[in-house]
Amino acid sequence: MNALWASMGPQLWPAFWTTLKLTFFSAVGAFVWGTILAGLRVSPAPIMRTFGTWYVNLIRNTPLTLIILFCSVGLYQNLGIALAPENSNFIKNNNFWLSVLGFSLYTATFVCETLRSGFNTVPLGQAEAARSLGLSFTRVLSLIVLPQAIRSVLAPMGSVLIALVKNTSIASAIGVAEAALLMRSEIELFADQILWIFLIIAAGYMVITLTIGLTFGYFAKRLAVKR
Known about the structure:
Blueprint: H1 2-41, H2 46-60, H3 64-78, H4 90-119, H5 124-132, H6 137-152, H7 154-167, H8 179-189, H9 194-222
Helix pairs in contact: 1-2, 1-4, 1-8, 1-9, 2-4, 3-4, 4-6, 4-7, 5-6, 7-9, 8-9
């Protein structure tokens, strides 16, 4: 156990820090793109609704591992699309941002559907009153519907974020040095202490996910829309 901790201990924080960074940047990207998709799904323009529907159904039902591998193999290795500047850490940084792109594209579909369910909680009369005053669909959505929808879906949005935290382990498939890759490397070195390795990594994920769950639960109660 002492040998395991001497090997694993110094690497725990860097590994989970990478996990936290993956989660943060992917969550930002997923929220922005997911909000746009939600707007497309309820747009009065048929072509926009069709695009939003097809995108959500296609990406949501595609295994996340395939999306991450496509970002690495398809975008970078075959198309030469790089997301990091050329320097000594290019491969490391590029794989990180390719993972962020993949997680954002995938998680945005769940953000979209969560927000869309929140749209249904906003009384239809409010949107109709705003349209009667001459406000465009975009302004009605951004000024009236979206703020209330976000407040009503904070708790399920926390569940989406928790799922994203756990999904970041897939980034190890393209060599991103996060917690799951650390676990894999430690198992190769200390196969006889696999239970302890699992418990340590699981405890780290549990701290992150419980914190997110409690935080979103608190704000969901504080910011709930009064009906």
